[in-house]
């Protein structure tokens, strides 16, 4: 079978090799979240892909806004990190377990065992939308809230298809998250 080891465990096990002649007194995982609000003026941006790529390349220069540390991180080390990133204590979050669980999603494709996976989710048509009835007409009558991923994105796609073909629609604007 396969055996997975976190990078932080490897670093911890080889501290003497990584820092020869030094005494390491503190060790903890931590993650800094930086302000990455990238305002794009759609009138000025001719190539959205290039603008987003430039924003991502410059993202690591944003101001620190949050510090996550593992639950076992000492007060001395967490205070030191808060000071280094110029953060107030209210932005410190202690996490029980690995600091960034999102990274573990990469392991899903490496292990071929259905017993370890949830069954595939099949999203349903949005309950507030009547299928086969004009979505624009339904929106004129009331607001509609779609709960994704529980309800499918098909209602949004149907709305966009209908809006594209409606002569009264002058512009379609979307926010990309």
UniProtKB/TrEMBL annotation:
GO terms for cellular component: polyphosphate kinase complex. Pfam families: PP_kinase (PF02503), PP_kinase_C_1 (PF17941). Residues 3-107 form the Polyphosphate kinase middle domain. Signal peptide: none annotated. Coiled coil: none annotated. The keyword Transferase applies. Keywords: Kinase, Transferase. The keyword Transit peptide does not apply. This is Polyphosphate kinase. The lineage of its organism: Bacteria, Pseudomonadati, Pseudomonadota, Betaproteobacteria, Burkholderiales.
């Amino acid at each position: 079978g396969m055996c997975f080891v976190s990078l932080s465990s490897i670093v911890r096990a080889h501290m003497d090799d990584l820092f020869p002649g030094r005494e390491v007194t503190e060790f903890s995982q931590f993650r800094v979240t930086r302000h990455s609000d990238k305002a794009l003026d759609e009138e000025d941006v001719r190539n959205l892909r290039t603008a987003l790529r430039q924003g991502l390349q410059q993202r690591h220069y944003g101001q620190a806004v949050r510090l996550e540390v593992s639950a076992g991180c000492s007060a001395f080390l967490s205070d030191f990190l808060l000071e280094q990133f110029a953060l107030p204590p209210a932005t410190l979050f202690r996490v029980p377990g690995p600091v960034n669980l999102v990274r573990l999603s990469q392991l899903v494709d490496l292990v071929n065992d259905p017993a370890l996976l949830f069954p595939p989710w099949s999203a349903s048509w949005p309950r507030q939308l009547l299928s086969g009835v004009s979505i624009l007409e339904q929106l004129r009558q009331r607001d509609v809230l779609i709960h994704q991923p529980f309800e499918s994105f098909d209602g949004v796609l149907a709305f966009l298809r209908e809006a594209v073909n409606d002569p009264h629609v002058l512009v379609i604007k979307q926010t990309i998250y």
